[in-house]
Design a protein that fits this description.
This protein is an all-alpha fold. It has ten helices and no strands. It starts with a helix and ends in an 11-residue tail after the last helix.
């Protein structure tokens, strides 16, 4: 595998990480979904592998974007809310400590460990509002930056080690469960498609980085 091809792979994964961050970080608005429709996001989604997650996710996202109109916005916002924030208890809470901590609390030990990891590796975020560091969208944001760095400097093995630690210790132990809940409970094809494509992304990035994890007992 040539260096240029490997760099292209990193950039492909980076582009997906950026989309996932933007989609999962905040409530949808008309302009963002319209831009996905205009750019044919579903049809142009990179094929990392010909997996069942990719094929179903791309189909759902493509159909949703093709038929998008402003009349769908309220249902999409309601779906985002019931998945991630409520009202009531959200069904796919996006914070790692909910899945890893005995008490299922925000900002628990696993969150603090991730904050130390971010600080050590000079990873920071400019947030519109306070958010626990282990929000799944922030992990994707960190991957976005790190994969870009890896593509820009293929000789820098340190950044690859940082990516592997992020994935092995802070992402892979719990994010697939969160994505499974998104897929199961999403009321719109948009979020179900995103959940499937995110799962495909994590599986294929794990293969690329050689980050296979041992089973972890999850609390949710």
């Amino acid at each position: 595998m040539t260096i240029n091809y490997k760099a292209e792979q990193y950039l492909e994964f980076q582009a997906i990480a950026r989309v996932l961050h933007n989609v999962l970080m905040r409530y949808p608005n008309f302009e963002s979904i319209q831009s996905f429709k205009d750019s044919n996001l579903g049809g142009n989604w990179p094929q990392l592998a010909n997996s069942k997650y990719y094929k179903e996710g791309k189909c759902l996202l493509s159909l949703y974007c093709r038929t998008w109109s402003s009349v769908k916005l309220n249902d999409l916002k309601l779906d985002y809310g019931q998945l991630f924030y409520g009202p009531g208890k959200p069904v796919a809470m996006p914070w790692g400590s909910i899945y890893l901590g005995e008490q299922q609390l925000l900002n628990d030990d696993s969150t603090l460990s991730l904050k130390r990891f971010y600080k050590k590796n000079e990873i920071s975020f400019d947030l519109e509002y306070n958010q626990p560091s282990d929000h799944i969208a922030l992990i994707y944001a960190a991957l976005d930056r790190l994969l870009e760095q890896a593509a820009e400097n293929m000789e820098n093995k340190n950044v690859l080690d940082i990516i592997k630690v992020l994935m092995l210790q802070h992402m892979l132990p719990w994010t697939s469960r969160c994505l499974e809940l998104i897929i199961k409970h999403a009321n719109t094809d948009f979020y179900k498609g995103i959940g499937l494509l995110a799962l495909d992304f994590e599986i294929e990035l794990s293969k690329l980085m050689g980050t296979l994890t041992m089973p972890v007992r999850l609390l949710k």
